[in-house]
Amino acid sequence: MRRTVALVTGLCTVVVLAGVAGATTTRPDPPAGRGVEAPDTLPVGVIDEVNGLLGYLTGPSTRTFRYPGADYVKVHFERVLLLPGDYVTVSDPKGVESYRYPAAEAGRWAMSISGDTAVVTVHSAARRLLGVLGAAALGVHVDRVARGLTVDERRARADRQRAREATRPGATGREESICGRNDSADAVCYRSADPVAYARSKAVVRLLINGTDLCTGWRIGPHNRLMTNHHCFTTSHEAYNTEVWFDYQCAVCGGYETFRPTKVWGNRVLDTDATLDYTLFDVEDFARIQRFGYLEIDPARPRAGQEVYIPQHPGGDPTVIAMSSDESRAGTCAISDPTYDGYAAGTDVSYYCDTEAGSSGSPVLSRDGNRVVALHHFGGCPNSGVRIDLIYQRIRSLI
Question: What structural domains does the chain harbor?
């Protein structure tokens, strides 16, 4: 397991999985003959039921929730009953990553803490005053904790996925989204070799949905707009319960340290479509993430042979970029079919760039202009993404 530089414990190691991240919502059936399972939501964590009580005059004012080896810990407040001016914090043990919540946050998940330990603390002047009327009834109740998978759990998940794929009727052994050898690399590996691609990868985000599920997304245009797949989430309620992680990247090429991600909450879904498999949404605290830049759309129709690359969060790992492919004679990722069938005839482009479960919602960018030409959503070798020129016709008035 990798750790972070002056940051938190992180995970950069690659775990090979079949398929792509996926869906909890109704969507069209995949086209006949694709030979690929419809996407399923990729679980990157589990939820434990707990009984964590933090009181005023009785009980502890601090509770620690530790899950050795987990890459994040996320608590759920069943009750937050505090006096005016009091609040509760959730932080890492050193207080470097810390989030503050008033009583109004009862019944909602807190922002995750990167690493395997979260500390919940009630901050109240009332604890220092004996005999406060009714103070014994006040306090905080944590009823659930979502925590990231350990390395062993991730490997077991990958083994189960491969076993299901191998026994699926009609499997050919090529249904994994890793096409041939995995040629993707940590985004930071391109910092000198391709600084433009590296800079573009900063606009790509890890989405932690409802505490345990994963997709990839990206910032589109200069305003408060982000995009992912329809099969990742579709409603503002789901967006509101989605964490958007910027700059979750390895600090050194092939190393074990990650930058501490900047996390904001999703906010509103502005538009979504099942056939073109996109969701356009915005986030809270937009000013905090503007510095990571944005991606631009190429409104032209993609063409065969066009070289592309895909920044993504496969398996929930820090950002990697798929730019090379051993399935291509030239050794590069390129569009093999610009009129591939997605959820409708001709809506997709296909390519042999390596993707994995969790890569759903990633941008497919052209090498010549570094603009987005497709929205990745299917595995299958070839893998495929929805043509962004089709999506652009639907959303251009919104971005």
Answer: 1-44+175-399 (2.40.10.120), 45-148 (2.60.120)
Residue 191 structure tokens: 């910092």
pTM: 0.87
Structure tokens at 125: 């002047």
One-letter amino acid identity for 263? K
Mean pLDDT of the chain: 85
If DSSP codes are grouped into helix, strand and coil, which group holds residue 167? helix
d(CA 293, CA 273): 25
Burial of 364 (0-12, 13-18, 19+ CB in 10 A): buried
Token pair, residue 306, equals 């066009």
Alpha-carbon distance 355 to 14, whole Å? 11
CA distance 171 to 310: 26
* CA–CA distances in Å: residue 263 to residues 87, 99, 113, 150, 244: 20, 11, 10, 21, 6
Q: Does residue 171 carry a pLDDT above 60? A: no
Give 231's Cβ-side CA count (13 Å radius): 28
All residues at 6 or more sequence positions from 330 whose CB lies less than 8 Å from its CB, including other chains: none
Q: How far apart are alpha carbons 122 and 292 in whole angstroms?
A: 33
Determine if the peptide bond prior to 302 is cis (ω within 30°). no
pLDDT tens sequence across 116-131: 999 999 998 755 554 4
Q: Is 169 exposed, middle or buried (0-12, 13-18, 19+ CB in 10 A)?
A: exposed
Question: How many helices and strands, by DSSP H and E, does the chain display?
Answer: 4, 25
Cα separations (Å) of 12 from 4, 57, 388?
10, 43, 29
Number of Cβ within 10 Å of residue 147's Cβ equals 26
CA atoms within 13 A on the CB side of 301: 9
Distance of alpha carbon 200 from alpha carbon 187, whole angstroms: 10
Q: How many CB atoms lie within 10 A of CB 196?
A: 11
As beta bridge partners, residue 43 has: 213
> Of how many residues is the chain composed?
399
